[in-house]
Amino acid sequence: MTPRQFGPYRVLEPLPDAATEHAWRAVAADGASVVVWETAASPDASSVTGPFVDVVVNSSAPGESPGWVATADVPALSLGTVVKRYGPLPSLSVLALGYALARALSAVHAAGLLLGALTPADVVLTRDGPLLRGYWSGPRRRPERAWPGFSAPERLRAPDARDPKADVFSLGAVLRYAATGEGPFGSGPAQAVEYRARLLPPDTVRLPAQLHPLRAMLSAEPGHRPGIAPLTDALAASPLAAEVAGTGWLPGPIARAVQAGGRPAEPEPEPQPGPDLEPGPEPEPQPEPQPETEPETEPERRRTAGPAGTGRPSRRLLLGGAVATGTLAAGWAVFRAVGGPRGASGDVRWRARPGHALSTRPASGGGLVVSACQDGHLHAHAAGNGAEQWASKAISGPSAPALAAKRWVVTTSQGQLHILDGRDGSRTRSRELDLHDISPAAAGRELAFAHSEDGALHAVELATGHTRWTAPGRMPLISGIPPVEPVVAGGSVYSVAADGVVLALDSDTGAELWRFTAHTAAASPPTLTDHAVYVTVDDGTLYALDRETGSTRWSVPTTRGAGSAPAATEESVFAGGAGGTLHALRAADGSELWSASVNAAEGVAPLVLGDTLYAGDWHGGIRALDTGSGQERWAFRPDDWLTAPSTDGRTLYAGGRSGTLYALWA
């Protein structure tokens, strides 16, 4: 029942974005709008001062029941709503958010208050930066039912325990949610999540390599977690920390939504069932989509003066696989061709709408473009006009698809490898291999290749689904770093293990051809040219290896934290780095040709085609750069957040979190 009055404030309506406490939008006698929060008591929250905290403007008198506090009515979106709408944040945004929340938590602790639990509903994004709210409620005795799994393990054993390190764990859990869409104990029904939280260690394996501070924050042992002061100092060094008092640290679509003061129309979502739960029944096939006839608004495309370029493909086309994920449903699938004759580079050739957020980069081949959606379906569209050809049955957490021998191969979040018929998407083979769902499969000739949890590489026959050979795993359990995507070319398969070992194996037999051991953990899939193998390791060092022998040609330091594969031709190598920097290096000796801060999206591998380099844009779009100078030629910026681009040599393909597949003229 909605109350009518709290002290001097008349209640207008419930606050739809509050999931952990009773909150209402209310108005004072002078017309000032506030948000009133009902509390069990009247804690002294007025002593909390500092940046990034939701300031209390009034509170109930001591002994008044129920207790309440009033805060300014600031247009905002909660972190939970943002991740649901747009998917997880890029790593640099997560680090900037961590810096702001660490400062807010420091102010709360300085006032003698403890949270006991922190959830994504307690963090809101505003035009002036993130705000921490809910600290006035006092220590929470148990995890909030709408957001289980965000309390420190020791608080599950002793709810009355008072230790600031428990709040550090909760902060790490919220940041993990921002980075992956899940808390450290997965998602699903509250009872299942709490069960895992009591019995299992927090999951830090799926964290991107750039988010090392979170691993310490999520330690099961309080003594192994950093204090709030050194944590704040460490996060202050992140590249976007200086921009967090605004919206410059956010990707473009999210920044625009926050600047518009958008409020969600529905209550804060509960986390959705995750891979630890049994999959439900497969949905019935949807009706055949019909062409869309109404006009659409064209995405923003900005063309910049620069060399014209021919767009002719080089001998080899190389790209990586790190992509962003999202969870926004977008309705029935429709398509609309907007092309016809070849348009100018960067123009939209066509767009299609599979209906749900595209979670991986699209793959092209056999006249099709195939993309995996967050709802588990693979959708195949005609490369020429975007018309949908088929949609697969639901697959639990599909990876980026790979094509070989007229079959499509995907791995799943349930540890399976599925082989689909390229003609209609029907499932022809399935294998339970305990695969690592972060590492997509590769396919070549008659075999598919995928890493399992222990790092072993499996070669599976496409025709029969039988395992032809298995290369033993080289992933130390203590590393907490998953294997990366293998690459197949020229009768060999190239595998990179978490301990920095690069292996070249005969793809037919699994016999080792050579191995190279880096000085630290590997961070990217290998990139191949006719004569070289390029791989980036965790500290940002880029290695150039001889493709025949595995010997080191050269190594150079780049900006740490990119986490994506470089792009390469026989003449040049292009590597991304933290802070949006791209480095162009001479393939012969690693000397730098140019380096440019172009706001390249972290973790989104660049792509080179002819004399044009395509890079994910920090604002969610794609930039085209001249390979010789780094000068921007054009930029495509839809009101969306795009996956890494792929290409068939004529067209660029990228998926959007809005559920749209974009085809651009290359």
Verbal overview:
Helix content is 12%, strand content 30%. It is globular and about 75 Å long. With 666 residues, the protein is an alpha+beta fold. A six-stranded antiparallel beta sheet has the order 1-2-3-4-6-5, with no helix packed on it. A five-stranded antiparallel beta sheet has the order 10-40-39-38-37, with no helix packed on it. It has a five-stranded antiparallel beta sheet with strand order 11-12-43-42-41, with no helix packed on it.
Rg calculated over all Cα atoms: 25 Å
Shape, per Cα inertia axes: globular
Strand proportion, as a percent range, falls in 25-35%
The mean pLDDT is 78
Total number of strands: 43
Task: Give the number of helices.
Answer: 8
Class from secondary-structure proportions: alpha+beta
Q: Widest sheet: strand order?
A: 1-2-3-4-6-5
Distance between the termini: 58 Å
Largest sheet: 6 strands, antiparallel
Helicity level, as a percent range?
Answer: 10-25%
Low-pLDDT sequence parts: 263-300, 305-340, 476-480
Per-chain topology:
Elements: E1 5-6, E2 9-14, E3 23-27, E4 33-39, E5 56-59, E6 67-72, E7 77-78, H1 79-86, H2 91-110, E8 123-126, E9 129-132, H3 153-157, H4 164-180, H5 190-199, H6 212-217, H7 228-236, H8 252-259, E10 300-303, E11 334-337, E12 348-353, E13 363-365, E14 368-372, E15 378-382, E16 388-391, E17 402-404, E18 407-411, E19 416-421, E20 427-432, E21 442-444, E22 447-451, E23 457-461, E24 467-471, E25 487-489, E26 492-496, E27 501-506, E28 512-517, E29 527-528, E30 532-536, E31 541-546, E32 552-557, E33 567-568, E34 572-576, E35 581-586, E36 592-597, E37 607-609, E38 612-616, E39 622-626, E40 632-637, E41 646-647, E42 651-655, E43 661-665
Antiparallel strand pairs: 1-2, 2-3, 3-4, 4-6, 5-6, 7-8, 8-9, 10-40, 11-12, 12-43, 13-14, 14-15, 15-16, 17-18, 18-19, 19-20, 21-22, 22-23, 23-24, 25-26, 26-27, 27-28, 29-30, 30-31, 31-32, 33-34, 34-35, 35-36, 37-38, 38-39, 39-40, 41-42, 42-43
Helix pairs in contact: 2-4, 2-7
